[in-house]
C-alpha cells in the first residue's frame, strides 16, 4: 500500500506542473513546459503530448521533448491508450515507457507518452499514479484553454461587428450626393485617406465637415485605432490645454491623479480638431509642436511623450483672414492645411437636395415608423430654399416634418420660412399654393375692405357664397360682425 502513495518528491513535481498550467498560456505552450518540468524534476529522457485532431481523425503531436525517432515512437501504443483510455507501461531495456490518457470529463482527448529510467527505489505504480494526476491537470488546462479560445472568438466577432457598424455609419456610403462637387469630394477623401498628411476641411457650418473627417479616418489604415474629436470652441480656454495634452498629478489644484490628454488617447489613430479657428493663440505654440514634432508634454510633466497621430482640422472661418489679423499663427496654418478640402454650401449644389431628402426620409421614416413623402411641388420648394444651415438644416427640417405629418407632404404643409418672396411669386399660380395661402389672402382682402364681405369677395374673384364657405373652412374670425 505504501508504494502506491505519491511521495513527497512527486507532490513537488505536481506542484511545479500546477504552476506552469496556471500561467495562462495556450495549451500547446503549457504542454511543452509540463514536459520540461518532468525532465528537470523527474529525469524523463523524452516526452510527448498528443491530442486527438478531428480534422485528420488521429492523434496530433502538440508538444515534444527529446528525440523521438521512429523506433522509439510506439505510435501503436498511444493509439491503444487513446482508444481504451487505460494507461500502459513497457520496460524497454534500461528505460521504461509510459503512455497515459488525458481525459476531460471521462472523454479521452489525448495521450502523454514518455521514457524514463526507473531507479531501484522507484515503483511503477507510484510513477503511474503521479502521471495520472498530471494528465488530469492537463485535461483541465485543455478545457480552460478551449473555453478561452471560444470566448476570444466571440469577443473578436463582436468587435468586428461593432467596427463594421461604425464603418458603415461613416463610410463613403454615408456621404450622399450626386453633384460633381460631392463626387470630387469622395475622390479627394479616398486619395488623402491613403496618406498620413494633415487635412484642413473648410466650409460653412452644417455642410458635412465632421462627416468627411470621419470618412477619411475610416478609409485610412488607422481605422481600427481611435478617432478623437477635439472641439476647440466648446471647451473653455483654461481647460483646453489639460484636455489636449493631459496633466500630471499635482499639476494644479484638484489634479489628484494624472490624466492622458486627447493626443495621447488617440495614439495610432486620428485627432480631429473641430473649429480649429477658435483655438486660442496662447495654445497655438503647443499645438504647433505636436503637429511638427509629434511630441507633447503633459501639464506639470517633466518629460516629452511621443505620439503617433494623424491630424484633421476643420473650420467655418476664413483662416487666412485670421492669420492676417494676427489671430492665427501662420506657421500653424501652413502645417495644418497641407491638404485642403473645401466643401461648398448646399445652395451651390442643389442637385444634392433631392437625394439628401430621400436619404433622410428613409432614415426618419424608419426611426419614427412613418411613411412620409414629399410631392414634387414640395420638393421644388426645398430646392429653391437657400439652406443657410446647409445639410444639417435640411436634415432637421425633414425630421420635424416626418414627426409632424403623415402621408404625402405638399407645399401647404411646409413651414413658411421655406418660402422666399421669389418662390411665393413663382408658385402663386399653382392650385396647391393658392390653397396654402388662401387663408392669408382672404384675411388680407377682408382687412382691405374693412370686413365688408361682398367687396372682399369681389376683390378675390369669388362669389359671396364661395367666400363664406372658405371663411368657415379656415375659421377666419370676422371682426365687427
Ligand atoms: N453629403 C452628406 N450626406 C449625408 N449626410 C450628410 C452629408 N453632409 C452632411 N450630412 C449630415 O448633416 C449633418 C451635419 O454635418 P456635419 O458633418 O456635422 O457638418 P459640419 O461639421 O460641417 O458642421 C450631419 O448629421 C451629417 O451626417
Ligand atoms: Mg462639425
From TrEMBL:
Write down the Pfam families for this protein, in alphabetical order. Answer: AAA_lid_14, HTH_8, Sigma54_activat
State the coiled-coil residue ranges. Answer: 141-172
BP-aspect Gene Ontology terms: regulation of DNA-templated transcription
Q: Could you confirm whether the keyword Nucleotide-binding appears in this record?
A: yes
* One Gene Ontology molecular-function label: ATP binding
Domain Sigma-54 factor interaction stretches: 175-403
UniProt keyword terms in alphabetical order:
ATP-binding, Coiled coil, Nucleotide-binding, Transcription, Transcription regulation
The answer on whether this UniProt entry bears the keyword Heme reads no
The protein's matches in PANTHER family, at most eight in alphabetical order, are given as:
C4-DICARBOXYLATE TRANSPORT TRANSCRIPTIONAL REGULATORY PROTEIN DCTD (PTHR32071:SF57), TRANSCRIPTIONAL REGULATORY PROTEIN (PTHR32071)
What name goes with this protein? Answer: Nif-specific regulatory protein
Amino acid at each position: 500500500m505504501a508504494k502506491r502513495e505519491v511521495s513527497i518528491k512527486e507532490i513537488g513535481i505536481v506542484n511545479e506542473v500546477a504552476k506552469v498550467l496556471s500561467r495562462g498560456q495556450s495549451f500547446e505552450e503549457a504542454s511543452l513546459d509540463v514536459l520540461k518540468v518532468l525532465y528537470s524534476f523527474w529525469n524523463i529522457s523524452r516526452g510527448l503530448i498528443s491530442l486527438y485532431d478531428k480534422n485528420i481523425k488521429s492523434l496530433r503531436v502538440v508538444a515534444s521533448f527529446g528525440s523521438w525517432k521512429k523506433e522509439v515512437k510506439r505510435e501503436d501504443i498511444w493509439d491503444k491508450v487513446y482508444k481504451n483510455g487505460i494507461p500502459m507501461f513497457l520496460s524497454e531495456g534500461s528505460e521504461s515507457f509510459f503512455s497515459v490518457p488525458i481525459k476531460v470529463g471521462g472523454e479521452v482527448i489525448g495521450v502523454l507518452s514518455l521514457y524514463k529510467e526507473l531507479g531501484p527505489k522507484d515503483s511503477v505504480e507510484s510513477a503511474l499514479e503521479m502521471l495520472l494526476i498530471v494528465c488530469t491537470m492537463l485535461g483541465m488546462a485543455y478545457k480552460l484553454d478551449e473555453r478561452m479560445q471560444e470566448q476570444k472568438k466571440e469577443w473578436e466577432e463582436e468587435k468586428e461587428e461593432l467596427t463594421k457598424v461604425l464603418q458603415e455609419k461613416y463610410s463613403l456610403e454615408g456621404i450622399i450626393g450626386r453633384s460633381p462637387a460631392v463626387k470630387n469630394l469622395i475622390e479627394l477623401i479616398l486619395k488623402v485617406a491613403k496618406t498620413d498628411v494633415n487635412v484642413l476641411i473648410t466650409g460653412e457650418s452644417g455642410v458635412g465637415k465632421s462627416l468627411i473627417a470621419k470618412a477619411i479616418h475610416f478609409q485610412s489604415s488607422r481605422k481600427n485605432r481611435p478617432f478623437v474629436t477635439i472641439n476647440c470652441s466648446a471647451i473653455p480656454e483654461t481647460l483646453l490645454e489639460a484636455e489636449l495634452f493631459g496633466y500630471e498629478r499635482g499639476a494644479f489644484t484638484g489634479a489628484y491623479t494624472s490624466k492622458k490628454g486627447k493626443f495621447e488617447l488617440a495614439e495610432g489613430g486620428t485627432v480631429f480638431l473641430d473649429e480649429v479657428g477658435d483655438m486660442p493663440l496662447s495654445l497655438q505654440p503647443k499645438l504647433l509642436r505636436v503637429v511638427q514634432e509629434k511630441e507633447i508634454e503633459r501639464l506639470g510633466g517633466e518629460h516629452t511623450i511621443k505620439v503617433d497621430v494623424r491630424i484633421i482640422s476643420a473650420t467655418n472661418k476664413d483662416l487666412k483672414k485670421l492669420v492676417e489679423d494676427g489671430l492665427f499663427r501662420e506657421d500653424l496654418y501652413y502645417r495644418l492645411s497641407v491638404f485642403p478640402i473645401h466643401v461648398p454650401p448646399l445652395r451651390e449644389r442643389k442637385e444634392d437636395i433631392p437625394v439628401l431628402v430621400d436619404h433622410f426620409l428613409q432614415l426618419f421614416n424608419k426611426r419614427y415608423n412613418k411613411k412620409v413623402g414629399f410631392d414634387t411641388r414640395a420638393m421644388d420648394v426645398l430646392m429653391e430654399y437657400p439652406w443657410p444651415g446647409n445639410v444639417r438644416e435640411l436634415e432637421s427640417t425633414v425630421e420635424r416634418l416626418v414627426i409632424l405629418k403623415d402621408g404625402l407632404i405638399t407645399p401647404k404643409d411646409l413651414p413658411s420660412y421655406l418660402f422666399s418672396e421669389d418662390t411665393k411669386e413663382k408658385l402663386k399660380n399653382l392650385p396647391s399654393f393658392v390653397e396654402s395661402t388662401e387663408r392669408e389672402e382672404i384675411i388680407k382682402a377682408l382687412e382691405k375692405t374693412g370686413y365688408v364681405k361682398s367687396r372682399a369677395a369681389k376683390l378675390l374673384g369669388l362669389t359671396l357664397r364661395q367666400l363664406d364657405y372658405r371663411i368657415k373652412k379656415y375659421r377666419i374670425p370676422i371682426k365687427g360682425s
